[in-house]
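COMPLEX REQUEST
Ligand: fe (ii) ion
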Amino acid sequence: MAVVTVPTHSKRIEGEGDVADFLRPYGIRYERWPLEDRCNPDASNDEILAAYAPEIEKLKVEGGYVTADVINVTPETPGLDAMIEKFNKEHIHTEDEVRFIVKGRGLFHIHPQNGDEVFSIEMNAGDWISVPAGTKHWFDFCHERTIRAIRLFQDKAGWTPHYVEAGVHEAYLPVCWGPSFISPTTPRVNPAVTL
Ligand SMILES: [Fe+2]
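STATUS: Structure written out below.
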């Protein structure tokens, strides 16, 4: 189940309805999808895409998405550090970021356009999210560095990150790095969050 945190207010929101209600004004859609009773999270990519075909096809019709795939990331994934570096800095995309977490977890930070405080969304297995194109955000892996997710694309080229100049990501510590995380000498500082 997703957890929303507003670090500067030490605010924490949980529960499908409350999380969806919080995210809706920002144009972000959130849903829970069936998990274990639908598909083994360790099934093949094709089996996972087949298991969620009803949801995927519905989204393709609604959102103009043309393709779906499954991304598998573990600590052993080649080039993982480069992948992390690519997405943990504030950026936008020219298309929606649509993800369903099959296994593992990760952390979005959202920087609202309307001046509201930055907030994070910890995405866990069974969570589906659609972050609209143009939303300033960044993404961190949690300390397990493991995530398996279905991705939907309108155009894969549109998912290239466009970095925000003077991005604010450095001021926010990923809350899911866990108690064993040792802050670097130039830390992301977030005193409102206790690890
Ligand atoms: Fe992104």
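REMARKS: The first helix runs from residue 16 to 23. Residues 189-195 have pLDDT under 50 and may be disordered.
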